[in-house]
Design brief:
The protein is built from six helices and 13 strands. It has two domains: about 190 residues, Bira Bifunctional Protein, Domain 2 (BirA Bifunctional Protein, domain 2, 2-Layer Sandwich); about 40 residues, Roll (SH3 type barrels). The radius of gyration is 17 Å and the shape is globular. α3 crosses α6. The longest helix has 22 residues. It is of the alpha+beta class. The structure holds biotin (BTN). The site of biotin has 19 residues, from α1, β3, β7 and β8.
Length: about 250
Protein backbone atom coordinates (compact mmCIF):
# COMPACT_ATOMS: atom_id res chain seq x y z
CA UNK A 1 0.00 0.00 0.00
CA UNK A 2 1.22 3.48 -0.81
CA UNK A 3 2.13 5.69 2.12
CA UNK A 4 -0.72 8.02 1.06
CA UNK A 5 -3.43 5.37 1.26
CA UNK A 6 -6.49 4.85 -0.87
CA UNK A 7 -7.92 8.16 -2.20
CA UNK A 8 -10.90 9.28 -0.11
CA UNK A 9 -14.28 8.88 -1.77
CA UNK A 10 -13.02 6.42 -4.39
CA UNK A 11 -14.44 2.94 -4.70
CA UNK A 12 -12.53 -0.23 -5.55
CA UNK A 13 -14.08 -3.17 -7.32
CA UNK A 14 -12.01 -6.34 -7.81
CA UNK A 15 -13.28 -8.93 -10.29
CA UNK A 16 -11.84 -12.37 -10.89
CA UNK A 17 -12.80 -12.21 -14.55
CA UNK A 18 -14.56 -9.93 -16.98
CA UNK A 19 -14.59 -9.36 -20.72
CA UNK A 20 -12.84 -6.00 -20.42
CA UNK A 21 -12.68 -3.49 -17.60
CA UNK A 22 -13.60 -0.89 -20.26
CA UNK A 23 -16.81 -2.81 -20.97
CA UNK A 24 -17.42 -3.14 -17.24
CA UNK A 25 -17.00 0.65 -16.95
CA UNK A 26 -19.42 1.18 -19.83
CA UNK A 27 -22.07 -0.98 -18.14
CA UNK A 28 -21.67 0.92 -14.88
CA UNK A 29 -21.54 4.43 -16.39
CA UNK A 30 -25.29 5.18 -16.28
CA UNK A 31 -25.55 4.54 -12.52
CA UNK A 32 -22.07 5.72 -11.53
CA UNK A 33 -21.73 7.51 -8.20
CA UNK A 34 -18.20 7.92 -6.85
CA UNK A 35 -15.02 7.54 -8.91
CA UNK A 36 -14.41 3.79 -9.14
CA UNK A 37 -11.35 1.69 -9.90
CA UNK A 38 -12.34 -1.61 -11.52
CA UNK A 39 -9.59 -4.23 -11.40
CA UNK A 40 -9.90 -7.58 -13.17
CA UNK A 41 -7.56 -10.51 -12.59
CA UNK A 42 -8.46 -11.79 -16.03
CA UNK A 43 -9.90 -10.18 -19.14
CA UNK A 44 -11.31 -12.31 -21.92
CA UNK A 45 -11.70 -9.47 -24.44
CA UNK A 46 -9.24 -6.74 -23.43
CA UNK A 47 -8.95 -3.95 -25.93
CA UNK A 48 -6.20 -1.54 -26.89
CA UNK A 49 -5.95 1.67 -28.82
CA UNK A 50 -7.22 1.97 -32.41
CA UNK A 51 -9.37 -1.14 -32.09
CA UNK A 52 -6.44 -3.44 -31.35
CA UNK A 53 -6.85 -6.37 -28.97
CA UNK A 54 -5.02 -6.29 -25.62
CA UNK A 55 -4.09 -9.65 -24.19
CA UNK A 56 -3.09 -9.93 -20.58
CA UNK A 57 -1.68 -13.24 -19.50
CA UNK A 58 -2.38 -14.33 -15.90
CA UNK A 59 -0.86 -12.11 -13.22
CA UNK A 60 -0.79 -8.96 -15.32
CA UNK A 61 -2.54 -5.75 -14.29
CA UNK A 62 -5.79 -4.65 -15.93
CA UNK A 63 -7.87 -1.86 -14.43
CA UNK A 64 -10.11 1.04 -15.39
CA UNK A 65 -10.82 4.20 -13.45
CA UNK A 66 -14.26 5.52 -14.23
CA UNK A 67 -15.47 8.89 -13.02
CA UNK A 68 -17.77 11.75 -13.83
CA UNK A 69 -15.88 14.72 -15.27
CA UNK A 70 -17.70 17.72 -16.52
CA UNK A 71 -14.88 19.14 -18.63
CA UNK A 72 -14.31 19.87 -22.32
CA UNK A 73 -12.90 16.94 -24.35
CA UNK A 74 -9.49 18.60 -24.80
CA UNK A 75 -9.02 18.76 -21.02
CA UNK A 76 -10.29 15.23 -20.52
CA UNK A 77 -7.68 14.02 -23.01
CA UNK A 78 -4.89 15.41 -20.82
CA UNK A 79 -5.70 12.60 -18.34
CA UNK A 80 -3.62 10.35 -20.57
CA UNK A 81 -0.49 12.25 -19.38
CA UNK A 82 -1.79 12.15 -15.80
CA UNK A 83 -2.25 8.38 -16.05
CA UNK A 84 1.24 7.79 -17.47
CA UNK A 85 2.90 9.94 -14.79
CA UNK A 86 0.91 8.21 -12.05
CA UNK A 87 1.80 4.77 -13.37
CA UNK A 88 5.49 5.68 -13.61
CA UNK A 89 5.42 7.00 -10.01
CA UNK A 90 3.67 3.90 -8.68
CA UNK A 91 6.15 1.60 -10.42
CA UNK A 92 9.12 3.59 -9.11
CA UNK A 93 7.64 3.60 -5.61
CA UNK A 94 7.25 -0.19 -5.63
CA UNK A 95 10.45 -1.18 -7.46
CA UNK A 96 12.86 1.58 -6.35
CA UNK A 97 14.18 1.61 -9.92
CA UNK A 98 13.73 5.25 -11.01
CA UNK A 99 16.02 4.96 -14.01
CA UNK A 100 14.40 1.86 -15.50
CA UNK A 101 11.18 3.57 -16.61
CA UNK A 102 10.68 6.15 -19.35
CA UNK A 103 7.60 7.84 -20.74
CA UNK A 104 6.66 7.77 -24.39
CA UNK A 105 4.32 10.39 -25.80
CA UNK A 106 1.41 10.43 -25.29
CA UNK A 107 0.93 7.85 -22.55
CA UNK A 108 3.15 4.78 -22.62
CA UNK A 109 5.47 3.73 -19.82
CA UNK A 110 8.53 1.95 -21.20
CA UNK A 111 10.75 -0.39 -19.22
CA UNK A 112 14.30 -0.80 -20.49
CA UNK A 113 13.00 0.54 -23.81
CA UNK A 114 10.20 -2.04 -24.21
CA UNK A 115 6.42 -1.64 -23.98
CA UNK A 116 5.44 -2.42 -20.41
CA UNK A 117 1.99 -0.91 -20.35
CA UNK A 118 -0.91 0.50 -22.29
CA UNK A 119 -3.33 3.30 -21.46
CA UNK A 120 -6.68 3.78 -23.15
CA UNK A 121 -9.11 6.69 -22.67
CA UNK A 122 -12.78 6.35 -23.56
CA UNK A 123 -15.94 8.24 -22.78
CA UNK A 124 -18.67 5.68 -22.13
CA UNK A 125 -21.34 8.36 -21.65
CA UNK A 126 -21.77 12.12 -21.52
CA UNK A 127 -19.53 13.60 -18.82
CA UNK A 128 -17.98 10.24 -17.94
CA UNK A 129 -14.33 9.34 -18.51
CA UNK A 130 -12.91 5.81 -18.38
CA UNK A 131 -9.14 5.39 -18.17
CA UNK A 132 -7.98 1.84 -18.78
CA UNK A 133 -4.49 0.78 -17.77
CA UNK A 134 -2.80 -2.52 -18.53
CA UNK A 135 0.65 -3.46 -17.22
CA UNK A 136 2.68 -6.54 -18.07
CA UNK A 137 3.64 -7.48 -14.53
CA UNK A 138 4.44 -11.17 -15.01
CA UNK A 139 4.20 -12.05 -18.67
CA UNK A 140 4.50 -10.35 -22.04
CA UNK A 141 1.85 -10.80 -24.70
CA UNK A 142 2.91 -11.97 -28.15
CA UNK A 143 4.36 -9.04 -30.10
CA UNK A 144 2.02 -7.78 -32.80
CA UNK A 145 3.37 -7.78 -36.35
CA UNK A 146 4.93 -4.38 -37.00
CA UNK A 147 4.77 -3.38 -33.32
CA UNK A 148 6.93 -0.33 -32.65
CA UNK A 149 8.14 -1.56 -29.27
CA UNK A 150 8.61 -5.14 -28.14
CA UNK A 151 6.41 -6.05 -25.19
CA UNK A 152 8.37 -6.58 -21.97
CA UNK A 153 7.27 -7.60 -18.50
CA UNK A 154 8.36 -6.38 -15.10
CA UNK A 155 9.25 -9.77 -13.68
CA UNK A 156 11.61 -10.87 -16.43
CA UNK A 157 13.23 -7.45 -16.85
CA UNK A 158 13.81 -6.73 -13.15
CA UNK A 159 13.25 -9.96 -11.20
CA UNK A 160 10.56 -8.11 -9.20
CA UNK A 161 7.10 -9.64 -8.87
CA UNK A 162 4.26 -7.26 -8.06
CA UNK A 163 0.64 -8.27 -7.57
CA UNK A 164 -2.12 -6.39 -9.43
CA UNK A 165 -3.79 -5.21 -6.21
CA UNK A 166 -0.44 -4.07 -4.82
CA UNK A 167 0.08 -1.93 -7.94
CA UNK A 168 -3.47 -0.58 -7.77
CA UNK A 169 -2.95 0.55 -4.16
CA UNK A 170 -0.01 2.71 -5.29
CA UNK A 171 -1.49 3.78 -8.61
CA UNK A 172 -4.81 5.10 -7.26
CA UNK A 173 -3.24 7.67 -4.89
CA UNK A 174 -0.61 8.60 -7.48
CA UNK A 175 -3.35 9.25 -10.03
CA UNK A 176 -5.32 11.34 -7.52
CA UNK A 177 -2.18 13.38 -6.76
CA UNK A 178 -1.43 14.21 -10.42
CA UNK A 179 -5.10 14.80 -11.15
CA UNK A 180 -5.29 17.32 -8.32
CA UNK A 181 -2.26 19.10 -9.79
CA UNK A 182 -3.96 19.29 -13.19
CA UNK A 183 -7.17 20.64 -11.68
CA UNK A 184 -5.34 23.15 -9.48
CA UNK A 185 -2.52 24.43 -11.68
CA UNK A 186 -3.51 23.39 -15.20
CA UNK A 187 -1.39 21.41 -17.68
CA UNK A 188 1.90 23.30 -16.97
CA UNK A 189 3.32 21.07 -14.18
CA UNK A 190 2.07 17.91 -15.90
CA UNK A 191 3.76 18.94 -19.15
CA UNK A 192 7.01 19.78 -17.34
CA UNK A 193 7.08 16.47 -15.47
CA UNK A 194 6.28 14.54 -18.62
CA UNK A 195 9.01 16.30 -20.60
CA UNK A 196 11.47 15.49 -17.79
CA UNK A 197 10.78 11.78 -18.08
CA UNK A 198 9.99 11.38 -21.77
CA UNK A 199 12.12 9.23 -24.06
CA UNK A 200 13.89 10.66 -27.11
CA UNK A 201 13.44 14.39 -26.48
CA UNK A 202 15.66 16.24 -28.96
CA UNK A 203 16.10 13.11 -31.05
CA UNK A 204 14.60 11.83 -34.31
CA UNK A 205 11.09 10.34 -34.19
CA UNK A 206 8.59 8.99 -36.63
CA UNK A 207 4.93 9.82 -35.94
CA UNK A 208 2.26 7.89 -37.86
CA UNK A 209 -1.33 9.06 -37.90
CA UNK A 210 -4.07 7.08 -39.61
CA UNK A 211 -3.31 8.88 -42.88
CA UNK A 212 0.17 10.44 -42.67
CA UNK A 213 3.72 9.87 -41.53
CA UNK A 214 5.95 12.62 -40.13
CA UNK A 215 9.71 12.34 -39.58
CA UNK A 216 11.50 14.93 -37.52
CA UNK A 217 13.20 15.90 -34.31
CA UNK A 218 11.14 15.70 -31.14
CA UNK A 219 11.24 19.34 -30.00
CA UNK A 220 8.63 19.46 -27.24
CA UNK A 221 5.03 18.82 -26.18
CA UNK A 222 2.91 21.94 -26.55
CA UNK A 223 0.35 23.47 -24.15
CA UNK A 224 -2.42 21.32 -25.60
CA UNK A 225 -0.46 18.07 -25.28
CA UNK A 226 0.41 17.78 -28.98
CA UNK A 227 3.76 16.35 -30.03
CA UNK A 228 5.92 19.01 -31.71
CA UNK A 229 8.28 17.73 -34.39
CA UNK A 230 10.73 19.84 -36.37
CA UNK A 231 10.51 18.34 -39.84
CA UNK A 232 12.26 19.32 -43.09
CA UNK A 233 8.97 21.06 -44.02
CA UNK A 234 8.85 23.02 -40.77
CA UNK A 235 7.47 22.61 -37.26
CA UNK A 236 4.45 20.30 -36.93
CA UNK A 237 2.18 19.94 -33.89
CA UNK A 238 0.63 16.47 -33.96
CA UNK A 239 -2.36 15.84 -31.66
CA UNK A 240 -2.50 12.04 -32.03
CA UNK A 241 -0.18 9.45 -33.59
CA UNK A 242 1.73 6.24 -33.03
CA UNK A 243 5.41 6.88 -32.34
CA UNK A 244 8.37 4.95 -33.71
CA UNK A 245 12.04 5.41 -32.91
CA UNK A 246 14.02 5.26 -36.19
O1 LIG B 1 -3.22 -0.09 -26.88
C1 LIG B 1 -2.80 0.27 -25.79
O2 LIG B 1 -1.59 0.50 -25.60
C2 LIG B 1 -3.77 0.47 -24.66
C3 LIG B 1 -4.07 -0.81 -23.94
C4 LIG B 1 -5.00 -0.65 -22.75
C5 LIG B 1 -5.24 -1.96 -22.05
C6 LIG B 1 -6.06 -1.79 -20.79
S1 LIG B 1 -6.09 -3.24 -19.80
C7 LIG B 1 -7.33 -2.53 -18.80
C8 LIG B 1 -8.30 -1.85 -19.73
N1 LIG B 1 -9.24 -2.83 -20.25
C9 LIG B 1 -9.13 -3.01 -21.55
O3 LIG B 1 -9.82 -3.77 -22.24
N2 LIG B 1 -8.15 -2.21 -22.04
C10 LIG B 1 -7.54 -1.43 -20.99
Amino acid sequence: MSSEGWPPGHEKLVLEETDSTMMEAQRRAPSLGSPTWILAHRQTAGRGRRGRAWTDPAGNFAATLIQRMDEPPAKLALRSFVAALALRDALVELTHLPDAFALKWPNDVLLNGGKLSGILLESPGAGVLAIGIGVNLRASPEPEPGAAFPPVNLRSETGITLGPEQLLDSLAPAFARWDTRLRTYGFGPIRTAFLNGVARLGQPLIARTLTEEFRGTFETIDESGSLVLVTPEGRRAIPAADIFFP
